[in-house]
Structure formats: structure tokens, C-alpha cells
Amino acid sequence: MRIMRTLFIFVTMLCLNPILLAQGDEYPINIFGYFQNSFQHWPQSEATTTHPQYLNPTEQSARNFFNLQQLNLFLSKDISQHWRAFVNFEVLNTFSSQRQWGSFNLEEAWVRYKASDQFSLKLGLLIPVFNNLNEIKNRTPLLPYIIRPLIYETSFSEFFSAVEEGAPARAFAQVSGIIPSGKAKLDYAFYVGNSPNINNEREIAQTGADTTDTFLIGGRIGLRLKNFKIGFSATHENVNLHFVEIGIARYDFIYNEVSRIRLGSDLSFHLGDFSFAGEWIAANYGDISEIRIDGEISKDSRGETSFDGKFYYGTLGYLIKERVFPYASYWYISHDFTYIAAELPLFTAVGITTIDGPTVGLSFKLNDRITFKGQYLSVSIKDEFPIPFSTIKLVQEQRYKIFAAAASVFF
Amino acid sequence: MKQFILTISCLTLWINGAFPQVAVIAHKSVPVDVIEKSDLLDCYTGDKSFWSDDKRVIIFDLKEKGDTRDAFYKYLGISSTRMKSIWMKRMLSGDADPPEFLESEDKMLQKVASTKGAIGFVSKAKVSDKVKMILLLPREGN
After folding, report:
1. For residue A90, what are the contacts with CB-CB under 8 A and spacing of at least 6?
2. Interval A284-315: pLDDT, tens
3. B7 — contact with chain A (CB < 8 Å)?
4. Best residue of A112, A113, A142, A411 to probe chain B, by most B CBs closer than 10 Å
5. What is the pLDDT of residues A4-57, one digit of tens each?
């Protein structure tokens, strides 16, 4: 009976004061986020080729569209003086499950133990530190761009694999810190995560919770001195690559647990109202595992294979009256691909895709919450197919011009 | 000549009057009696988030632009816009919360006095014995 009475008093108190349990909570939960709406005009593309008898690139018709490029919602809470929890939901490309547009992702959910400024440990789903931009690539209020340097343009990730290949997207444990050294500061971060698409049971597609026996490891060492920042990053992981080509026979190019090493460096500085940010990344893949012809492992395939890639960008801007930021930027990607140059016997060759995009733009900060942006981008996508044992190279190119306007809102 | 000296004196008085001397203040529990400029900058950029006694550094800022705030950021050698962008980056990457922006210097004094580990800035004339002054910024032009 006494237990019932105590329970009754407890429940009554809870009902009368629903925030009772929260009263002793020193640290409130913070909910905030941002979104970026854009309008893009793509005039008809130009398509050219050096060998129209072999290659037939087609022009893309003009397109105009509004798009909710991105919306992020964050929840953060200090659990105690040294512990913090953080969750980041991300919605891309006017997400609608009804229309099967865009995507909705849980980007981050981690808890951090910060022992001191020199050492903190993050556990859980996190975006690892890699070069200058990776960790904040999706933070549109921080960036002047509408269309970011391509490997960081998450809203293209549904269509363009280099977005996932260029920089690590997620890790699950990270240690980091700042070590002061005189007037300079040394930043470090080391992390571990899953290899992105390894599945021990090959027949089953990856579920996101597979047992893997290979891991992503990586890190960044950086140096800061006043307004000058430089860093070097590296990752190693294994990836599965698999693609099929049909010619006289069916060719399965199977790359299981291929080693991938990314190396990166970044440089950024402020000089008065001028600012510069630049990065370089190289992704190198190990050797091919096997090529199957009509299901049988080929013993006599010859030629070269490669998927290596390179990327760099540089942005120079000038801040006017603390509100207007005009900038000029240039980014470049080159990406090897393997193709069948001859079928009998099988002979593979390595082609190269290069994408470059000079761009100019302007961002205008209306206030601390709202930023308007404009950008013009000229993109060239060029595929080159060298013919083995000759100097001939088949080339096709698509050129796009993109005019974009956007509003980025922080709430 | 007299007129020239008078003009210079008036100008000096006007400048000193226009830009009040700014004091950096801290909660009495903060284990620092004098703060270096570099440490102050680290506190405000978020690079220093703990005091030597393991208490968290809590920073306060003024909401509106004014002589006190201008003098403070000028001393730190960083524009308030750049500082806001540093804080936005820290906030959006989940690293830390931005400082609380207060309406007035009186409110700043009150908040620093009542918050353990807190640090802020007010004009020297506002400093009271409820807080401790850990740095007096040089006068503008000195």
C-alpha cells in the first residue's frame, strides 16, 4: 500500500510538472539548422568529338529548375562538462519519398569526450577530418558557393561517383586535438571507420550494418599560424569495384577489396580582406583482382587497368564591407577508367576523364541568418580513349554553362 | 601656436572620450589574474575551452556594435565578422556553442559575475568588485 501511495505521489508530481526531470539539467538541448534553395539555368550543352565515326556525344537540352538543394537539422547537447552529443540529419534535392526525389540521410550521430583542448575522442557516425573542406563541405552558410568544388558537391552524389571517392564520407571513431607550439598551433586528427562498400557475403548487397574485415583508417596533421593554415591528410581503405562490359562476350571486371590510398593537402589564409583556400587530393587504387569472361576467370587478359584520380581546387575572394564576398575559383578532376581496346584476345586500356570548372560568384550576407548567392560556372567533361600502340586518341567533350542563384538560411 | 595646442588637446580629449578604455573581466573563480593577448584570442576563437582548473571557459560578447566592442576586437586583431564565421563553423561542426550575445555592458557584468568560468569585456568605468579584471586594454592610439 505504501508503495502504491509513493507511486501515486510520484506520478501526480510528474503530471503536475512535466519539466520536473529537466529542471536539474544544467545543459539545454540546442536545435538549429539551415537550408539552401537555388534556381539553376543550364543552357544547351555543346558536344564535340575528334572522331565522329566512333564516338557520338549528344548535346543536352537546356534546363531550368528550382531546387531545395539541401536542408540540415542539428541537435546538440552537452551531457556534462566533458561530454557532448551531436546529431545531423540531411535532406537533399527537394526530398520527397512520394515522388522518389532526393535523399534523406543520417549524416552524423556521435558523442564526444573532450578531456582537454589537446585531446578529444568522438565515437559514433561522424564526418572525418580530411583536408580543409571535408568536415564542413555541407555547411552551406559557411560557403560562398552554390555549386561547390565537385567532389564536395553532395547534391550531385546521386549522379556522380567522384563525390564519394574523393574524400572520406564517414568514420566511427576519431581522436583529435590542438597542440600549441609557440605562436603556432598543431592540429591532429586520426580516425577509423568501415571500408565503404565491403560485404563479406558478396551475394547480398551492402546493408550499412555488414560485418567487414577491412577498415578505413585516416588522419590529418595541420599547422596554423595566425591567419595561415596548412594541412596534410591521408586515408587507407579497401573497396569493392565491379562493372560489366558486353562485347562479343560478357566481361565482368571484379575488383574485390582493392586497396585505395588517398593523399591530400590543403592551404588557406587571410590577408586583410583577401582570402584564399585551396586543396589537392590524389586517390590511388591497387591492382585488379580478376576479370571474368562469360563467368570464367580470364588467364590471358592483357593491357593496363587503372581507376586513379586527382583533384584540386583554389578559391580567391575579397570581403567588401563585411557583407559582400566576390570570388573566383577553379577546380579540376581527372579520373582514370579501364576499357576494352580489343576483345580477341582481351586487351584492356586506360582512358581518362577530366572535368574542370572555372567559376566566379558572389555572396551577399543580408544579416547573420540570410545569405544570397550568385554563381556562374563553365564545366567541361572530356573523355579520352588512347588507342594502344598508336598515338591516336579518341576524344569526346561536353561543355556546360551554369547560371545559379540561391538563398542560404540559417535558423 | 596657442590655437594649435588647444586644437590638439581638444582632439586628444575627444578621442579618449570617444573610445573608452576597455577591461577584460572574469568570474572570481577563474584561476587567472592576468591574461595574455594570445590566450584571450584563443578563448574567443574556441581554441582554449578549459581553464587550468578544468572548468570550462564561458565567453560572452556584446550584441550591438559599439565603441567597447570595436576596441575589443581591434585589440584582438580580428574583425567581428571573421569571429562570427569562426563561431558558425564551430557550431555547425558540433564543436562548440557560440558565445551568448548580451544587450548591454551592465548585462555583461551581471552575467560574468554570476557564471563560473566566464569571461567578458566592459568599459573600465563599469568594472565592479563583483568580477575580477584580468586585462586592461591599452587606450586607442596609445
Report:
1. A70, A71, A72, A104, A105, A106, A107, A138, A154
2. 988 766 777 777 777 666 778 888 999 999 99
3. no
4. A142
5. 555 455 445 444 444 444 444 578 899 999 999 999 999 999 999 998 888 888
Please indicate, yes or no, if residue B40 is contained in any of the structural domains. yes
pTM confidence score: 0.85
- Minimum CA–CA partner of B57 in chain A: A81
Rounded (to 5) percent helix, strand, coil in chain B: 45, 20, 40
Q: Identify whether the C-beta of residue B108 lies closer than 8 Å to the C-beta of residue B121.
A: yes
Give dist(CA B134, CA B34) in Å, integer: 5
| C-beta of residue A93 within 8 angstroms of C-beta of residue A71 | no
Tally of domains within chain B: 1
Q: Tell me if B75 is assigned to some domain.
A: yes
A74 interaction partners in chain B (CB closer than 8 Å): 92, 94
Burial class (CB in 10 A: 0-12, 13-18, 19+), B86: middle
B39, B57, B92: which to substitute to probe chain A, counting the most A Cβ within 10 Å? B92
Reported ipTM: 0.83
**Has residue B128 been placed in a domain?**
yes
- Are A380 and A396 in contact by the 8 Å Cβ rule? The answer is no
Domain assignment present for residue B6? The answer is no
Q: Do A142 and B48 touch (CB under 8 A)?
A: no
User: Which CATH number fits the domain that encloses residue B85?
Assistant: 3.40.190.10
Q: Count other Cβ atoms within 10 Å, centred on residue B109.
A: 20
Domain of B52?
20-136
